[in-house]
Amino acid sequence: MANIRYWLALSACLASALVFSQARDYLRGLTPYRAQDRVAGTIRVYGNPYIPELVNAWEEGFRKHQPGVAFRNDLKGTEAAMAGLYGDVADVVFVGREAYRAETEAFRERFGYPPTEIRITSGSYATPHKTFALMVYVHKDNPVSKLSFKQLDALYSAERRRGAREPITTWGQLGAKGEWAHRPVHVYGYNFDTGMARFFRLTVLKDSYRWNPDMKEFDNGRDAKGEVINAGTYITQAIAKDPDGIGFSNVMFGNDNVKALALSESDAGPFVLPSKETAFQRSYPLTRYSTAFINRAPGKPVDPRVREFLRYILGKDGVEAVVRDGAFLPLNANAIREQLKQIQ
After folding, report:
1. Considering only CA atoms, which of 250, 255, 247 is closest in space to residue 274?
2. pLDDT band at 149 (very low <50, low <70, confident <90, very high)
3. pLDDT tens digits, residue range 209-219?
4. CA 223 → CA 165, 216, 228, distances in Å?
5. What angle do CA 306, 83, 296 make, to 5 degrees?
């Protein structure tokens, strides 16, 4: 029994050391929040229901610096977030994914300008319901190891907005030799209406709605107990049985008979394999974001209360809360500097 307790304690210490090391890496280059203005009043928050603990941590931490601020939260759903903003019942809204065109257009129709977007975290690498990154998979025996977005676009889009001269239909067009050269490519993916397919469409297909008509799409299912099976599982299972298959999914749904490809936005590279580190560094190009939106009229300053709150979220204190929460990957220092420009 003593030995068991020893090993459990040692495992806990090692896990804590790993978390500390990761936190140190994530927080490198960041500075603690320092108030530019003393603010007071109520900040109305709408949006993503998957992050109440993180929102509470941000708010409690912020109020230590700005005790005159109160919050009114209504985290009923990402889908309701933008309506809260253009309905003028929210000051800042948290959206756990990329905003849909219909959402931003509804705001623009009301005010005549788009909402201001601030990226507040990266998506997760592999956490359910937390805007996880996408990986492109092929069968483990497939000789192809990397793809550019232009090649992916020629595989998945009938429009080919990235400039490919012709659709890609054989593995030889992707550099495979020998017996693979003339084998057909079988394309798999998420149902067009899912968030994963929308992200893939926006990022890879340059928002083209003209998908490859031969793509086999999968939607979520349920097991015998009624538990949800993510469509990504069906995609990787299909590829495991089909050496000519290719599909986008996530590492959570992988298996021993598939492999992830290195990807690049440019034909010239660099081609980057997915990992937690490359997602944090945002060198892996199919990493997602969670976002905040505010109503900022062109040429007008950001409401000081909202500006200070967002500065807190994007400071070392706010990022440390993201690390402790563990659901999303934090933004790195370079990405944070870019986002701060949105609220200056």
Report:
1. 250
2. very high
3. 999 999 999 99
4. 43, 21, 7
5. 35
Q: Find, among 23, 50, 26, the residue nearest to 334 by Cα.
A: 26
The 10s digit of each residue's pLDDT in 247-297 is 999 999 999 999 999 999 999 999 999 999 999 999 999 999 999 999 999
Contacts of 285 (CB under 8 A, 6+ apart): 149, 203, 263, 264, 265, 272
Range 135-281 classified under CATH 3.40.190.10: yes
DSSP track, 17-67: HHHHHHHHHHHTT------SS---EEEEEEE-TT-HHHHHHHHHHHHHH-T
Residues 6+ positions from 132 with CB-CB distance below 8 Å: 123, 124, 125, 126, 250, 252, 288
Q: Which CATH number fits domain 24-124+288-343: 3.20.20.140, 3.40.190.10, 3.30.70.980, 3.40.640.10?
A: 3.40.190.10
Identical topology for domains 24-124+288-343 and 135-281: yes
Element (H, E) at 135: strand 135-139
Sign of torsion, CA 24 125 201 95? negative
